[in-house]
Write a sequence for this structure.
């Protein structure tokens, strides 16, 4: 099992898809890294040698991924909350931040709907 940035990557998947298991690595970045290293995208992870994995690790050092990226994102959100911006207040209240409607949708952000019980007369 390949291990990159303290994350176990699945062996039975293509190298392009396996790299997407890293936080901050999407399909375009995975393709860019593999083409720069000289590895075909459709090779399985178990086919890669340790030297090829080392090349991928060296190339990933030039990008902000995993814990560094998570720390940056959470720091940005905390900064917005501390300065009291509108986006920061929306983050604090756990409401949608980017202008989505909240009257009917936004269940993903707000959580499960809580119904008000009717009183029997």
């Amino acid at each position: 099992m390949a291990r990159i940035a303290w994350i176990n990557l699945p062996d039975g998947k293509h190298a392009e898809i396996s790299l997407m298991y890293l936080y901050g690595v999407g399909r375009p970045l995975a393709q860019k890294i593999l083409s720069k290293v000289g590895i075909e995208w459709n090779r399985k992870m178990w086919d890669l040698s340790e030297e090829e994995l080392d090349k991928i690790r060296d190339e990933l050092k030039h990008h902000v991924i995993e814990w560094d990226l998570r720390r940056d994102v959470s720091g940005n959100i905390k900064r917005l909350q501390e300065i009291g911006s509108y986006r920061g207040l929306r983050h604090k209240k756990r409401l949608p931040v980017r202008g989505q409607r909240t009257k009917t949708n936004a269940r993903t952000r707000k959580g499960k709907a809580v119904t008000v019980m009717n009183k029997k007369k």
